[in-house]
Specification:
The complex is a heterodimer of chains A (256) and B (406). By secondary structure, chain A is of the alpha/beta class. Chain A is 28% helix and 27% strand. In chain A, strand 8 (123-130) and strand 9 form a beta hairpin. The mean pLDDT of chain A is 86. The chains are: A alpha/beta (256), B alpha/beta (406). At the A-B interface, helix 4, strand 7, strand 9, strand 10 and strand 13 of A face helix 5, strand 12, strand 13, strand 14 and strand 18 of B. Strand 14 of chain A pairs parallel with strand 23 of chain B. Bound molecules: flavin-adenine dinucleotide. Chain B: GO terms for molecular function: electron transfer activity; flavin adenine dinucleotide binding.
Amino acid sequence: MTTHVISLVSIGAHPTSGRPRRAEQDARAVELGLQMAGDKLQVLHAGNIHEPTLRSYLGMGLTQLHVLEQPAGSDALPVLSEYLRDAGAQVVLTGSQAETGEGSGMLPFLLAEQLGWPLVVGLAQVESIEGGVAHVLQALPRGQRRRLKVRLPFLATVDNAAPKPRQSAYGPAQRGELAAHEVEIEQDELFTGALLQPAKPRPKRLKVIKAKSGADRMKAATAKASGGGGQVLKGLSPEAGAEAILKLLIEEGVVR
Amino acid sequence: MSDIIRRDPRAEWIARNRLHPLHAAMQPALHSWMGPNGIIRKNVHGVGFIGPNGIKRIDRSGAQQGGAAKRTAAVHVQLPLHQVPAPAFYINVVPDMVGGRLSSHDRDLLGLARQLAGSDGAVLAVVFGEHKEITFATAGVDRLLVLEGHEFDGYSPEQRVQGLRAVDNQFNPRHWLLPDSRSGGGELGRRFAASLKERPATRVWQIKGEACIGRAGAGQEDLARPLPRLILAAVECAEPVSETRHEVLPVELSTALARSLPRIEDLGAVAVDPGAIPMAEAEFIFSGGNGVKDWALFHQTAAALGATEGASRVAVDDGFMARDRQVGASGTWVTARVYMAVGISGAIQHLQGIGACDKVVAINLDPGCDMIKRADLSVIGDSAAILQALIAAVEAHRNGAKRDAA
Ligand SMILES: Cc1cc2nc3c(=O)[nH]c(=O)nc-3n(C[C@H](O)[C@H](O)[C@H](O)COP(=O)(O)OP(=O)(O)OC[C@H]3O[C@@H](n4cnc5c(N)ncnc54)[C@H](O)[C@@H]3O)c2cc1C
């Protein structure tokens, strides 16, 4: 029995040109979904069905892409949660952050809250799904992984630790079908009070030296980096030295 | 201890007063005498005295006497204490506490909280479980709430949100500040926001008055908006607190925490191949230099410790390690939390590369080398013997742990 997986996708923006493209993390969500469910994967988008970029997801080998039709600037949350509640999915995958608009990364959290499902952040791999329980690997910073046990159905976000998305091919992209669903439209109230503007480069933080005298400032500018106050163990046997090192490593939690 | 140099006016006065009983003892060291071959020898270092700013002064009028001995006085710089006896409101901060300590991101966040709190408000830090931090006072924490309990051990986002909700009910803070980081804060803040049904400001990098600016989308745009109650702030959102000391008064929750059955269970960390982790983001680096003689033993130790391997330039140039393993100015700048340097002298080019490391451990023969000055723990001795002992110790530790578990 294959799992019923739904991947949510959005329209991305190229980091330099800003042109629409398939969103990097959403493409990874589709890739992970394809690996889990194969042809049974269902891909869902809330927005404009006439956006040509949507076809680049179809180009990953999908036969169909479901679109909940909405004009730009409307709130995707209510329609998505409405749809997902009755869709009977066991796993819903999303990217962790949109590439356009606010990009707050709140959508999966709000969806999980509304649906009452558990949420796994930074899914890297699904190891097994058995008897209503999934064992998954979560990506942590610094290349680490953590194993989690989570009840089905669950929502998961993927980030750059998830498998790399396959290329999008032109033929399948043109053959694939965009299936429209009519939904109620709700305006997003964020943009009434907020203003999107081109990103300002952030100034580099200056190293401020608070010194009372010129001699101190000179010292601060020329001194080598030194921790000072480090502990130096001299004349110990190698075993005692090794014990001291190991104690620090265990305290820091790097040796388990 | 500070090394401010102080003059001793009394000693100088005694040296000037030929009738004083201690006059002879206070004479400056002889700085010119006749050598065995009749040549006049001069000790140029004995001339003059060290002024209060640490600069050498030579008084050529001949009036200067004595006091040449360097005296240092212990001056403990005490920052002024900022007190908030009756806070008008709270600014709550939930630091990441990576490795049980405040990260630099946490400190920036506390600096931002301090700005928002002004003189009437108090910064309340909420910390889960045990911590090793001792500098909350200088980081700007007025009140500290430690939520203890086994339910917060490991990865427990759902329980932590419950904890934060209880804190929210009791203190009703004006703002909640969390680091928008991958090491926990970003996730916890969003979960908390979803459970409160409040819209947070994310990736905030500037707060001015009642408005804030955060990055939006993929970083191409900024979003300016009115300041909400929940703020997820980016790194370097504000300067950390540096000029005041704070009380760190412990506070407690008055209600017991509601318990819920966790829907996500933490089964623990998974062993990953340390060699596959990019050096720049590895957490624990075991680095070898010219002082490593037995490279087989070095690799064996790295495997035993489960550390990512690094090397100094000399080790790379000599062909013992691959080029992509070089740490330093012309190699990789690493950010490891723990960096272990075996037989590395600590040339400035190497030290630059480990500037961001938290704890440095050095094994070296030479107690005077620069790496020892940088290190938090140094063991002086031959690397081969210490590495062998280290392997044995790690194995004993692992076996002991296994026996405990069984
Ligand atoms: C432009 C430029 C860029 C450079 N960039 C880099 C860079 O990116 N990274 C880098 O690392 N270097 C760089 N260097 C080189 C750097 O200046 C040093 O030469 C180099 O870091 C020294 O490496 P080392 O500490 O391994 O060797 P050494 O300086 O030879 O130090 C060996 C240390 O091992 C100790 N030792 C010896 N035998 C034992 C033993 N049996 N047990 C324990 N300890 C022992 C010694 O006491 C000594 O402290 C650069 C240099 C230049 C000019």
